[in-house]
Here is the input.
Amino acid sequence: MLEEFLKDILRQNNIQIDDVEQTTIHRVKENSKAGELFKTVVDVKKEIMKIFNLYDEKEKFKKSNLIIANANAKKYYETSIDLGNFPNIVIDEIRNLQELGLYFDSQDNKLYGTPKIATTIDLQIIFHNINDESKSEDIKIVPFIINADPKDLWLDIASDQNAIYAKDDQETYRGNFLDKKIVVASKRGRSHAHEGGFRDDDFRIENLSDSWSIAAVCDGAGSAKYSREGSRFVSEFMVSEFNDSSSLELLKSFVIKYYELQKELDLLVKSNSFNTSNSKQENLEIETIVNLEESTDDLISQGDSLSEHKLLRLIEEKELDLRKYKSDIINVLYKSVLKCHNKLKDFADQEEVLLRDLHTTLIFTLCRKFDFGYVFLSFGVGDCPMNILYDGLKKVKLINELDVGEYGGGTRFITMPEVFTNEIVNRFRIDFFKDFDKIFLMTDGIYDPKFITERKLSSIECWSEFLSDLQGNNEDKTVVDFANDTVIDQQLLEWLNFWSKGNHDDRTLAIIY
Amino acid sequence: MNRRLLAYFLFDTSGSMKGEPIQALNNAFNGLINMLRMDPQAMDSLYISLITFDREVKNIVPLTDLASFKPIEITCPESGPTHTGLALELAASLIKKEFITGSVDRKGDWKPLLFILTDGKPSDLQRYREMVPVLKAMDFAMIIGCAAGPKAEVSFLKELTNNVVSLEVTDSLTLTTFFKWVSSSIEQGGKSQGVGEVLQLPPPPKELNVVV
Here is the structure.
């Protein structure tokens, strides 16, 4: 080792190594002082290397991509700083933390606390190398993001009331409906308020002649330019279209016939020991609350005395009649819906806008109380549900079919010609209920956050939760008081303010109670 | 879990992007992220995935929610081909894996968005042309192509989408303008629309040339 060292020195001094020099080298190697000096040189080198490594590790740490997860304002935050690749680095402190509301625990390399405000800041990480006796400090800069609380980001900009098709940002209604009451609140969603946009939802409630009532709710498409006008036009059109005593008279007679036939048919089927027509029965999708025990005796006896063959034929005949009356009812409804679509088309032409600029969903239920109970004639296109709660709030029925796309936001509108095919028949429903507790009509601004999926709309457990939410079991403790209802419309409007991540659409909720 | 809006960004990082263009892209893209961070709607629903393509194709930032997204420094090799087709292939496979369709139990994601920025043309043209119909068949809310700089060929992007803009220069200002427009299309992505309908984009600012 010493020999190599010596040779290096000779080369540096341009001394050629021949035989004489080789002999000299041997003599120097035996010199004890030279040996001592060489040892010192080795030690010095080691020391210098140590100093190099110390600085090198610090520099590498400074350059390293240290990941510190983003924090969120007003939310507790905790993260460990991983120094796995830098075993000799010790973090002494992180500067500028306290004003953010954060703290650093140097024992566990933990950054924690609840940040007060949103900001983007360069954190100053003060550190030293464990091998550095002087413990000289160094600074590493790490960018750090504290996201804003989304609640603080929403702006509430009033819509321009001088703009074309202007609409109030919120609307409520309170009144009688059938022999019960109704409350409705409709509120512009945060996403629209943020841009000073309009409420695209709309609704109309009307008590018509001869004890008929109608409730219509529309949700204008967020992607359509004038959907606010589409929803206004459609909801208004539907209630005014049925404000016509002759067609209501006609519907009434069809409904009574339909109901009576249904009752007769039920008895016949019951008296027939073969459940042959069960499947057809389901096709009619009718919820009959008919007490079969109170039946008229003559029909039963008629049934008893009939031969099986004749009975089956009678059932078939009655079914045909029933279908005829169902078709009569649906045709009245269908014509009004088709008329609505066509009038909307005319309106679009007249206003020189595209029909798709007026895209809106529509649900309505036209209802009346008869001697035998309530009847609901309903229609729906789009993703807004109508539900009836009955049997002491123990049962629930979704009375329309939802158009729910497989990706978010995909639905159908009354403005789409493709809705008017033969399948439209399935969009109409006739429901009988001896009595009911509550009826709900809502736009997806409520349904999305509160029920999430279509399946849950038919779950009584989910409805119990929803009812309890309305009764004040919510984050804001907002109560909708059905018993003491002088300000129920304002209460419902306030309730509509609930917070739900990612759900900031317009919200409209109508409750018949 | 609420509805997510997935946005896939495909950036050309071939050799020709080295220098000012890549720096400008970094500035503008991180600027976009900061801008979106102030948008409450995006903060609630936006997820971002970043793919770079040169000789190699990398998903340098896997799908990340906006709140967790960290500033990024994209780098370029000295030279080499532009494997745009390979990038489309990776994007398609990621989306197939990551996109959640609606079921009876959960809400489906919003239709995804795809942004592709290139300053040249695909070197793997055969694969590119194989992938174009695959991507077109996927139900995007929108695919936006950006031909950045004088050497970018718009014709290939036009095969992929009708929404192509071209930028004359790739400086920070122009790219920022582009990304501002991108953010408005991200806003559009989170709105309800009719089955089978296409998204309407706001008109692009004058710095961007719409390619027809």
User: Anything to note?
Assistant: The longest strand of chain A covers residues 119-129.
